[in-house]
Amino acid sequence: MSLQGLNLYWTKHQVAIVDDVTLSVQPGETLGLLGPNGAGKSSLLHLLAGLRRPDSGQVLLDDTPLRRLSRRQIARQLALLEQHATTDSDLSVEEVVQLGRTPHRGALRPWQPEDTRLILHALERVGLTELRRRRWHTLSGGERQRVQLARALAQQPRVLLLDEPTNHLDIQHQLDLLALVRHLAITSVVALHDLNLAAMFCDRLIVLHRGRMVAEGTPEMVLTPTLIREVYGVATRVTPSPDHGRLQVHYLPGSLPP
Ligand SMILES: Nc1ncnc2c1ncn2[C@@H]1O[C@H](COP(=O)(O)OP(=O)(O)OP(=O)(O)O)[C@@H](O)[C@H]1O
């Protein structure tokens, strides 16, 4: 399923938070969303998820405008992994993941063995099978993050939006999570702060700066020292990795503490 945002514009208190952003994500593609703190990444993801209405512009899922779909119809096709996802602390891990099936259930469609299979598969994919009976409030930050990803996977979305999903994760789980997202046959948009992870795992990148899209293209097109200096104010050297061929960003003296 493709996802498009056309001329999206969202203001708050007369300030343009998302300022005329147009983007298109092809079926199965992983698009990285970069930009400094406050650039508008979360706000843009909320517009794309239909949680906020743009002041102007529109979001299309395939060719259907999001505003024509009900919340339930959207949730059957699109999942958002929020930056600070929380949940009722009395639930077990398995019960949190079960919530992902809610959009697919109804009076005429009670819980089925297929739902249980999807829950167990989602837990396995994020490596949390062993913890499935644990209470949510006893989990570490990284474990909670992975439970929320399992919940999103159980939702069987065709579009997955992730807001800084590697927060709280140790390096192995950061790599595992992004490899998983990249290999899913799901259209994905992932907001990231780590430029090297973005270069390793994203097909294409867009960069937001003060609400505007200032760059768009492959990692090779986007991650230039000039762009990084202009947007982040940091001096870098960017080279292909001798180990995996993807770009690597080196932060140079002068941008580092003495
Ligand atoms: N509801 C709101 N009311 C007022 N200002 C808001 C609101 N939501 C976001 N903003 C402002 O919009 C700007 C963009 O915020 P947003 O959270 O989208 O940025 P971000 O790129 O996700 O940042 P970060 O990397 O720090 O998570 C920030 O300056 C923020 O303070």
Automatic annotation (TrEMBL):
Key words of the record: ATP-binding, Nucleotide-binding, Transport
SMART domains found in the cross-reference section: AAA
Magnesium keyword on record: no
InterPro entries for the chain: AAA+_ATPase (IPR003593), ABC_transporter-like_ATP-bd (IPR003439), ABC_transporter-like_CS (IPR017871), P-loop_NTPase (IPR027417)
A GO molecular-function annotation: ATP hydrolysis activity
Pfam families assigned: ABC_tran
Matches recorded under PANTHER family: ABC TRANSPORTER ATP-BINDING PROTEIN, HEMIN IMPORT ATP-BINDING PROTEIN HMUV
Family the entry assigns: Belongs to the ABC transporter superfamily.
Protein name as it appears in the record: Heme ABC transporter ATP-binding protein
